[in-house]
Amino acid sequence: xxxxxxxxxxxxxxxxxxxxxxxxxxxxxxxxxxxxxxxxxxxxxxxxxxxxxxxxxxxxxxxxxxxxxxxxxxxxxxxxxxxxxxxxxxxxxxxxxxxxxxxxxxxxxxxxxxxxxxxxxxxxxxxxxxxxxxxxxxxxxxxxxxxxxxxxxxxxxxxxxxxxxxxxxxxxxxxxxxxxxxxxxxxxxxxxxxxxxxxxxxxxxxxxxxxxxxxxxxxxxxxxxxxxxxxxxxxxxxxxxxxxxxxxxxxxxxxxxxxxxxxxxxxxxxxxxxxxxxxxxxxxxxxxxxxxxxxxxxxxxxxx
Length: 304
Prior knowledge:
This protein is an alpha+beta fold and 304 residues long. It has twelve helices and 13 strands. Strands 2-3-4-5-1-6-11-10-9-8 form a ten-stranded antiparallel β-sheet. Strands 7-12-13 form a three-stranded antiparallel β-sheet. α4 packs across α5. The longest helix has 16 residues.
């Protein structure tokens, strides 16, 4: 493992920033029973209804309780024929492992017929977001490259500084890199670090919840690095180069240069660290990230 990656990895923490679960495969009567149970939970003050359609469901509820802070969404009455009986969306990172386990406990005890066993046998992950925070890593000097990610969208903030880059791999996955410190400041929150970049992957249709730890790396071969100005570059040339490599990615930018210019630039870049953040290497911590989220805490209680 190279030194630049070790430095980056010590400042990089992974967390499940959002997850959506659906429960399907029930007959009509069972679906109606679960819908009735959620209506009862509303009447008893466990849930409060949102007066809008969300995520393809006609009835949507927020889980009450100060500890949940409107971060848990229950949905039922699918607008699609033979749609799932129930959808659950929440943010394990913001809830913490104890409250994440508590949310699953509410589903198992208040809605499902066979409790926790049914939850882990039936729950299917329709989307999860995994966020890696790089503290002390500047988005303004980040280079991106990948053989499997070619298109991107750029969103600028105050002063037209790039704050968000969206890399579209497929409809099933998307990589988003953004200035987390700037986002926090825009919400009136003091960020924990002055320089703070978040790298996030949004994965759809991830299979059964029970198999979540076995999910293959959804980042594919996505890399990013931050290099010091190579010898032979003027300050302005290096600023322009960094600006262009965000929305274009490194390979695309090099492809715009003549062969002689490309050789010169590539030679200069080779003398700098070529890798700072490699998702494939960090993904080995994925089972630990899932474990620490609290998503499997209720299951561990059942098996001990």
